[in-house]
Design brief:
The protein has about 90 residues and is mainly alpha-helical. The protein is built from 5 helices and no strands.
């Protein structure tokens, strides 16, 4: 299979870092506790919503972030790096 290399712009890199930094506020202990209690990551999802990351692909005309697919998957990669993949499913990201 062919390898595809993508170089992120400075803006895309800044977005990815911002998402990663937000995720650092929710360490592994947060996720383990939620998992043990079988609870929804309400605080985390609220932070993502407040920052505008959950509406990233929705056009700005409809209240979203108006980002492209590359930015969307860049911030999702940052979430996965911090172990927030269960929140991605819970938030339908």
């Amino acid at each position: 299979m062919a390898e595809i290399r993508i170089t992120l712009t400075e803006e895309q890199q800044a977005l990815r870092k911002a998402v990663y930094d937000l995720c650092q506020l929710y360490p592994g202990a947060y996720w383990r506790e939620l998992d043990e209690k079988r609870e929804y990551p309400e605080a985390f999802v609220q932070e993502l919503t407040k920052a505008g990351y959950l509406a990233a692909l929705i056009p700005e005309a409809y209240g979203g972030g108006g980002l492209g697919i590359l930015e969307y998957y860049g911030d999702r990669a940052a979430l996965r790096l911090r172990g927030a993949k269960s929140a991605l499913s819970a938030a339908h990201c």
